[in-house]
Amino acid sequence: LTVIAQTGDMLRGALALFALSLGMGLPLLVVGTSAGKLLPKAGAWMITVKGAFGFMMLGLAVWMLGRLLPDPLTMALWAVLVFIAGIFIGAFSSLEADAAPGRKLAKGVGVLAALYGPALLVGALAGSRDPLQPLAGLQAGSAQPAAARPAFQRIKTVADLQQALAAAGQAGKPLMLDFYADWCTSCIEMERYTFSDPAVQAALSGAVLVQADVT
């Protein structure tokens, strides 16, 4: 449909949809007419797959809640999920000496998850904001990037923006308008990494900084 909208070529778009339908439908026809011979057999592996997808869905939920909840609370949720995942993988399960390599690898991953989970929890209690650096808040003299960002003037209406533009024009300064929302991943990255950059701060030192919070 996008091809049709951009090129105006209905034939090309129709052929693309037809090819897509063939690609999606033929495998189903082949599997359906094989009387189940091509389907994998039921067994314990299905329980493993079900558990893996369960943790993936819970991880997606935590990732989406991260747009609404405070960062330390989101990290605490990640800590609980990662630690429990490590237990399910087999971090604390006994392992025979002649166990299969796959089980040994799974246990190693489980142990790493069991160690990473508490690190996330300690970081959350210390006020850390980045799950990739959970213990950064424990470093002496470390400053959170959000605290170093330039000060923005919050506006709520178009009239507030017009007033800020007029004031900046009278002062002979440029004005930068930043749209922000708690659920916007790019906005949070700008807050943490871009506006905390000394070079960016130097470039914005002579400008009027205005921010519209549309959360």
Total helical segments: 8
Task: State Rg.
Answer: 26 Å
- Report helical residue fraction: 55-70%
Quick one: biggest sheet? 3 strands, parallel
Distance between the termini: 32 Å
List keywords for this structure.
8 helices; flat; 215 residues; 59% helix; three-stranded parallel sheet; 3 strands; mainly alpha
How would you characterize the overall build of this protein?
The chain is mainly α and 215 residues long. 59% of the residues lie in helices and 7% in strands. The chain is built from 8 helices and 3 strands; from the N terminus they run αααααβαβααβ. It has helices at 2-7, 10-33, 44-65, 71-89, 101-125, 158-171, 185-194, 198-203, and strands at residues 153-155, 175-180, 208-213. It has a 3-stranded parallel β-sheet with strand order 1-3-2, with helices on one face. The longest helix is centred in the middle third of the chain and has 25 residues, at 101-125. The radius of gyration is 26 Å and the shape is flat. The chain starts with a helix and ends with a strand.
